[in-house]
Amino acid sequence: MSQDTNTIDAPPARPSFGYGLYLLISGLIGLIASLALAIEKIEQLRNPLGALSCDVSILVQCSANLDSPQGALFGFPNPYLGLFGFACVICAGVTTWAAPAIARWYWLLFNLGVAAGLVMVLWLISQSVYVLGTLCPWCMVVWAVTIPMFIVVTLRNLRDGVFGAGLRALGAQLWPYAGLLVFVAVAVVVLLAQLRLDVAGNVFGL
User: Fold this and answer.
1) Could you give the CA distance from residue 65 to residue 140 in angstroms, rounded to a whole number?
2) What is the pLDDT of residues 13-35, one digit of tens each?
């Protein structure tokens, strides 16, 4: 009975060293960007009339995003969510090296958390591009980390049987295209920003 229970609780395949390294690096990049945004928010509160270091132009800036209602979705600055969320990503990456076997529910909850992060990022992208009309540099770093992370984590979990043995074949078929899917997803965001804000013209003078 205990053997059957372990088979149900643990994923069929142990995450590789490279997967753990990917999560660690992605988490560190996201954490640094969130920390930079949190510092900028503190500076904005200290000096409301001053320009922030990430304010490059009217289009590329942090001030408008941080000072908007969208910048505090749950009543406190969004960067604090990033500090917590990306710290969890770092822990997940290190856990893949430290634990000999990790229960399936752990990766399911982790995937759910990454999916929640993606939903929030997509909403923030829509607000930034279509409502505020600005591109926050550090926010874009968070976007660039979260979107690929969701694709990689989800496809890896599919491939390794975290969502059940029945979906392993689908994961195995999609996994080789992870890079392409990331490219397409990022390209769509870039295209939407270009069509709405004319980034190439306003930033690069093209």
Assistant:
1) 12
2) 677 889 999 999 999 999 999 99
- For the structural domain made of 2-204, what CATH number should be given? 1.20.1440.130
Query: Would you call 3 exposed, middle or buried from its count of C-beta atoms within 10 A (0-12, 13-18, 19+)?
Result: exposed
Give pLDDT tens digits for 147-198: 999 999 999 999 999 999 899 999 999 999 999 999 999 999 999 999 999 9
Cβ atoms of 124 and 78 closer than 8 Å: yes
Q: Rounded to whole angstroms, how far apart are CA atoms 25 and 145? A: 10
pTM (2 d.p.)? 0.90
Please choose, from the candidates 104, 193, 188, 183, the residue with its C-alpha nearest in 3D space to the C-alpha of residue 151.
Answer: 183
Question: Could you tell me which of 86, 122, 108 has the C-alpha nearest to residue 156?
Answer: 108
Q: Fill in the amino acid letter for 126.
A: S
How far apart are the C-alpha atoms of 71 and 52, rounded to whole Å?
15
